[in-house]
Amino acid sequence: MSVIVNGKSVDAAPRPGQCLRTFLRDTGHFGVKKGCDAGDCGACTVLLDGEPVHSCLIPAFRADGKAVTTVEGLATDEGLHPMQQAFLDAQAFQCGFCTAGMIVTCASLNQAQKKDLGAALKGNLCRCTGYRAIEDALLGRTHIEEVAAGEAFGRSLPAPAGPELVQGQARYTFDTAIDGLLYIKLLRSPHAHARIIGIDRAAALAVPGVHAVLTHEDAPAVPFSTARHEQAWMDPADTRVLDDVVRFVGQKVAAVVADSEAAAEEGCRRLVVDYAILPAIVDPAAATAFGAPIIHAGRSTEHRIADVNRNIVAETHGEFGDVAAALGSAAVTYEGTFTTQRVQHAALETHGGLAWLDGEGVLNVRSSTQVPFLTRRALAEIFALAPDKVRVFCERVGGGFGGKQEMFVEDILALAALKTGRPVKLEFTREEQFIATSTRHPMRVTVKAGADRDGKLTALQLDVLSNTGAYGNHAGPVLFHACGESISVYNCPNKKVDGIAVYTNTVPAGAYRGYGLPQTTFAVEAAIDELALQLGIDPFEMRRRNIVRPGDPMLAPPGSGHSDVLYGSYGLDQCLDLVERAMAEATPTPELSDEWLTGDGIALTMIDTVPPDGHIADATISLHHDGAFTLTVGTAEFGNGTSTVHRQIAATVLGTTVDRIALKQSDTAHGGHDTGAYGSTGTFVAGRATQAAAEALAAELKGLAAQRWSVAPADCVIADDAISCGARRLSFKELATVSGTPLAASGHSQGTPRSVAFNVQGFRVAVNKHTGVIEILRSVQAADAGRVANPMQCRGQIEGGVAQALGAALYEEIVIDDTGRVVNPRFRDYHLPSYADVPRTQVLFAATNDAIGPLGAKSMSESPYNPVAAALGNALRAATGIRFTSVPFKPDRLFPRLQEMFGD
């Protein structure tokens, strides 16, 4: 077959059944991405004879004699394609995995199509941006600022990878070619609970190209957790690389390693497994009953499981004051039970990785991970390897949202590489992402609250049942976090918490943006509104009377045992004021018939900027002979923007510009340590390490100049790529030459003390009382992010967080049947927000400066997600008079209550 790809003839024979996407990638066109395998996401969009197509749906042979243009082919010798330049100017990307396909689609639009972007972009999904920046690119808007040396921090500077992203040149996990590569496919359990009696490998090994079949007999029996934390106590040791007991439908049973994915898949089909079916349970409430099937029989508290016999992996209980008495004497009370569903992270780059042994016997693992250093530690422990014999690194990561704070593929990759001695690849399909990784923890939250006649809270009580699924990764920390800041943001003399996280025979839950707070905030903020309604107090005023303020203790029983959370800065009062003013502004409102009911709702949240008990980051920075710098950090870039902010921090401290700072990151071979990019720490913790390293190097440079001039270092000023003292000046290039030895410095951050960030969300909604359809008329979020490191980028994080949370609040839901099987494991059955679904959110920032965070900044990556469902629920209550207590707020679920209230 002969096809013209980006103006060049490619002559190659596609494999039988091969799609155009894999054909193009096989020929080195890595800008064509895999996000769904089914034409649902648009990441693989190319032009076929000038028309945009999803290349995963086009058989490769159909391109014979045709012209294909990928994102790499849009630019010309004169420069970038106008659409590539527009995306660069508007910084219309975050993780960037969808960007290549999105640009190709946008470049093909005519003027008529641009007038209806909802229809024009329905085939391209973005999980990060919230689409506002993409719309801005199409409208020709730019948000980038020009700044002088030393003034980078606090300004809207572009991401360093931007030019590569818009041209499809940024390299993600699988954007490389490796000779001699073998492919791994996993056989997965069809049963929710079973013991493996035996596995017959003979037929699988007879498949041409199959090199190995790996089972629990080949894997270490070391128990561990897929969750990655700095401290092991946070998670139970309840998982094995390959187990002889399967505990959910989709759990890996065996790995087939072969010359091709097709051979590996055929090998999986030919494996014969003898299962002894065990009793299964999918209801978390029933799982705690005495006599219920024990899911992790044989484990104990030594494995950090609270109560194996009742399937309770973690629990928290505590009270201060007397809640029952306070409720009994309160002027008004409210009690309600709220439920939240399973949600998939849906990062467009699925889990996967490559592994190989190098010439020195070092195990190299290149994966899509948020936690390379913690994964290296786990692999070394599981496989009894010296830490210096394991290297884990990531290139650019295509979205994470907490889902890649797990070790779902690296253990199998390591096992296969060690057993075969060959480089190996494992890439999850979209279905595997749904059935075999992790979800948000579904929770049942009962809240009780009381207040006096003046609107002062007198009692707050939470009873939480969290479903952690078959394994306890993140079960305890999510539960503790959910029961923490959701009520400690309010002053109340009497508080009580009872929470348990329970095993069930369902797909595991894990870390997800917000880490438990969206679930409990949904209940707590509803209770605050209901008390305000009974008292006739405005919802803003009700919160002002009860929120914590500087000097107040931030208390939630039973307490975390960690007292290092401080008010590094405080802007919650500003956030309330900003949202109240914005919601009161006159805005255009669509004409609505009397079938529509409208209402406003708000919610607030507080979040600790760092997890408790240790989050470590190291950084180093060195000066080169040309006067430029290299900054090395361990934290990963997956759309969180840390690669931009770290350069801004270093450039500001060193009096230079960001283009003079080269960045190396997320590779254990670089030395040092970094706990990982999770828990709102990429800027707050790792950024402090960068600041410390830059300040140390600045001091060294000043000392060198002072010695040369025989003056005090304090008399020297660092600015404009030089050290000055009066009229004397030494450029960085000259200093590098003068020193005669390499100039470098290191910085370290322990992640303590911690600060708090605040967010307030406001919505105005219209609800059709006869159909349950919801239209969002206004969306406003105010954030206290300290000194905002990069306003454009931070605004994008908030817009993306709101969009993602709206998906969960309105329609996203993993559905599991009575047998524990996920019934909607693909995008077309799981509604992700597209451009047409997402309202434009007005983003406002409180004016604060955090005393703890780097250069006054603090986190703002996950907290924007937290108040969204709660604010939307309060808006629905205001519009309809009905308190809806379960998400998602799908029309068919609202309809029965609306019909009951308003009739046909």
Automatic annotation (TrEMBL):
Matching InterPro entries: 2Fe-2S-bd (IPR002888), 2Fe-2S-bd_dom_sf (IPR036884), 2Fe-2S_ferredoxin-like_sf (IPR036010), 2Fe-2S_ferredoxin-type (IPR001041), 2Fe2S_fd_BS (IPR006058), Ald_Oxase/Xan_DH_a/b (IPR000674), Ald_Oxase/Xan_DH_a/b_sf (IPR036856), Ald_Oxase/xanthine_DH-like (IPR016208)
SMART domains found in the cross-reference section: Ald_Xan_dh_C
Keywords: Iron, Metal-binding, Oxidoreductase
Pfam families: Ald_Xan_dh_C, Fer2, Fer2_2, MoCoBD_1, MoCoBD_2
Domain spans labelled 2Fe-2S ferredoxin-type: 1-74
Family that this chain belongs to: Belongs to the xanthine dehydrogenase family.
Protein name: Molybdopterin-dependent oxidoreductase
Organism: Bradyrhizobium aeschynomenes
